Amino acid sequence: MNHLLDWPSIPDAIWEACLDRALVHASDRYGNRDRAREQALALVFFNDSLRTRVSMELAAQQLGADVTTVVPGQGTWGFAWGDGRMDGSEAEHIREAVAVLSRYATAIGVRLFASGTDLEADRTEARLKAFAAASSVPVVNLESAYGHPCQALADAAVVRRHLGDPRGRRFVLSWAPHPRPLPMAVPNSALLMAARLGMHVTVARPDGFALDEAVMQTARSLASASGGSVEEGADQDAAVAGSDIVYVKAWGGLGRYTDPAAEAALRARHGSWTMTQARMDTTRDGRFMHCLPVRRDVVVESAVLEGGATLHLDQAEFRLHAQKAILEYVWGLLP
Ligand code: CP
What is the structure's pLDDT at 53? Predict the structure, then answer.
């Protein structure tokens, strides 16, 4: 079964085929109207979304598939996860819910963010795996605890379209301030994506905000296979200077799992990491990237968003094109 739970477990040939297809779909939005006729997609959103929800619904429809969206507990029963007696407020267990959706749909997409409190469950993707295990049709990860593969494919296609061959070009993943300890799914996926593209990647983050070492190790392995490299450090200005892509993202430190108050206090001390136009001016005609939504003048100066040297709206658009490629993959329709 062709689940799409993350990219590192997917062979290079499929990653490359999906990347190529995303670019084809970008150049011909309505040219595949009958490609997925007699397929049906069920989307389950445990968390809020604008881009993922709308782009996935339209991607399925523009391929000719049926699509339906479920927000658990809002017009459906609440879903329980644990083992044992169900005497809480949830009326339906995830095992039956997903098994039932598998009888209606030929693929299921699920958004299921990190708990932020149980590091072992988050880093092992315990809930995503439980969801997939209950399904008898392919499952697409629409952002989980540690990964956002739909965003990663869209971002890779945007980088490739902007730079041509991105191998050897400089990609900075720059931490940003934020009032909340956001999950690491997007920074993890952006790092792995750039490493797989063969770029020279620098993760710029303050001390205390390192990404999970297992993810860093996977990125180093991907970079070693692609001819790229991965380094990290706390000097944001040095990292941004001379770079080609500045991918800005806020995330909470791993300390949130052990001492949330200390993590919040540390995060509040790094307001100077907001991406500024002055910093962007030190790049090599670099482009700002962000997955959106973005907090203006917290994560990035409004002047950067409005200055023209950005790819953030292209990234949002390419979610549509990339997810058509992903649906083709999970439904066995890749050319
Ligand atoms: N980038 C992204 O996944 O956006 P949404 O949270 O709006 O889906």
Answer: 98
Q: Whose Cα sits closest to atom 3 in ligand 1? A: 52
pLDDT tens for each residue of 227-286: 999 999 999 999 999 999 999 999 999 999 999 999 999 999 999 999 999 999 999 999
* Residue 145 CA neighbour count, 13 Å, CB half: 21
Integer Cα distance of 161 and 170 in angstroms: 15
Closest CA to 253 of 173, 175, 201: 175
User: Does 51 sit in the ligand 1 pocket, CB within 6 Å?
Assistant: yes
Distance separating alpha carbons of residues 148 and 196, to the nearest angstrom: 15
Q: Please name the residues in contact with 13: beta carbons below 8 A apart, sequence gap of 6 or more.
A: none
At residue 117, the pLDDT reads 97
Q: Is 274 in the pocket of ligand 1 (CB under 6 A)?
A: no
Q: How far apart are CA 48 and CA 113, in angstroms?
A: 10
In the reported structure, the alpha carbon of residue 49 is separated from the centroid of ligand 1 by a whole-number distance in angstroms of: 5
Atom of ligand 1 nearest to the CA of 292: 1
Binding site membership of 154 for ligand 1 (Cβ less than 6 Å)? no
Q: What's the maximum distance between 2 C-alpha atoms anywhere in the chain?
A: 59
Query: Residue 52 CA: which ligand 1 atom is closest?
Result: 8
Picking from 14, 12, 10, 38, the residue whose alpha carbon sits closest to that of residue 325 is: 14
Q: Which residues contact 31 (CB under 8 A, 6 or more apart)?
A: none
Q: What is the per-residue pLDDT across 182-212, written as a single tens digit (0 to 9) for each?
A: 999 999 999 999 999 999 999 999 999 999 9
- Find, among 289, 297, 298, 283, the residue nearest to 317 by Cα: 289
DSSP 31: T
For residue 3 the two structure tokens come to: 């689940």
Nearest ligand 1 atom to alpha carbon 291: 1
